[in-house]
Design a protein that fits this description.
- It is a single chain.
- The chain has no helices and 23 strands.
- The chain has strands at about 1-5, 10-15, 20-25, 25-30, 35-40, 55-60, 60-65, 70, 75, 85, 90-95, 100-105, 120, 130-135, 145-150, 160, 170, 180-185, 190-200, 205-215, 215-225, 230-240, 240-250.
- The strands form six sheets. Strands 1-2-5-6-15-12-13 form a seven-stranded antiparallel β-sheet, with no helix packed on it. Strands 3-4-11-14 form a four-stranded antiparallel β-sheet, with no helix packed on it.
- A hairpin with a 4-residue loop joins strand 19 (about 190-200) and strand 20.
């Protein structure tokens, strides 16, 4: 069994029938009916946990009937030419995303949507947990697009020049979190912004933003890689405005 995880990428490969419930970052592979290699990639600059668009690939055992053996060591193959046979599998995944709902799109060989999308709602016990089933017997695709919807899902543009009348620091989401969370704040006019993280003793452990920023709503992603589990406070100083909120890191 092999697992790899970064904030924007998660991968797991192996015989899941004998090793279920394998976690790679924000993805848990609960079960797969046969050998498979599963990857989940953010298609934005955001981590998977808050990415609006992402891609899952589900690769299985393959047989190319056009391969031709010459002796016992040399293979003259035509890999990628028809017919290539894939062993269909059924995979059950748990994805951790800060969203209100997901749309799952099976994709064709050119990346086009293949058939209709499936809407997936979060778990009743945890609004950040989505149970996803990929069944290649019902839909023989190896690529699946995911689009996340919800107020807390950041867009590609992290700065929105909307009409903002007051300063505001919003609660981070998700919270508690690991490995990343999103912090949003409003600026009614251009200001020098300093956004920092402090531990319970008041010590500064991270500087997220320290620059001049224009008016509007700003969103920033903070990763927990350099800090340990526990309670922290994030503090916003923008001109004369000051605000602070609590967040919890669980590893």
């Amino acid at each position: 069994m092999l697992t790899v995880a970064t904030p924007r990428f998660a991968s797991a490969a192996g015989f899941f029938a004998s090793m279920p419930d394998r976690t790679a970052g924000a993805m848990t592979v609960r079960s797969v009916s046969d050998f498979a290699a599963i990857t989940w990639l953010s298609l934005t600059n955001d981590p998977l946990a808050v990415s609006r668009r992402s891609l899952i690939t589900l690769a299985t055992r393959a047989q190319n009937t056009n391969q031709v053996w010459d002796g016992v060591r040399t293979l003259h193959d035509h890999w990628g030419t028809a017919p290539v046979l894939l062993q269909p599998v059924r995979a059950e995944l748990t994805l951790h995303i800060a969203a209100d709902s997901l749309h799952l799109y099976p994709l064709g060989v050119r990346g086009e949507a293949q058939g209709g999308s499936v809407t997936i709602l979060p778990s009743a016990s945890d609004r950040r947990v989505f149970e996803v089933t990929l069944d290649q017997s019902a839909n023989p695709s190896v690529w699946y697009g995911i689009e996340a919807f919800g107020e807390e899902v950041p867009s590609h543009v992290r700065h929105e020049e909307s009409a903002v009348s007051d300063f505001a620091l919003r609660q981070n989401y998700p919270n508690p979190f690991n490995p990343s969370t999103m912090i949003a704040y409003d600026l009614p006019h251009e200001s020098h912004v300093r956004l920092t993280v402090h531990d319970v003793l008041g010590r500064e452990v991270a500087v997220i933003v320290n620059e001049e920023q224009s008016a509007g709503t700003h969103r920033v992603t903070f990763g927990s890689g350099r800090i340990s589990s526990g309670m922290y406070f994030y503090h916003l100083q923008a001109g004369s405005y000051s605000a602070q909120r609590m967040m919890l890191v669980i590893k």
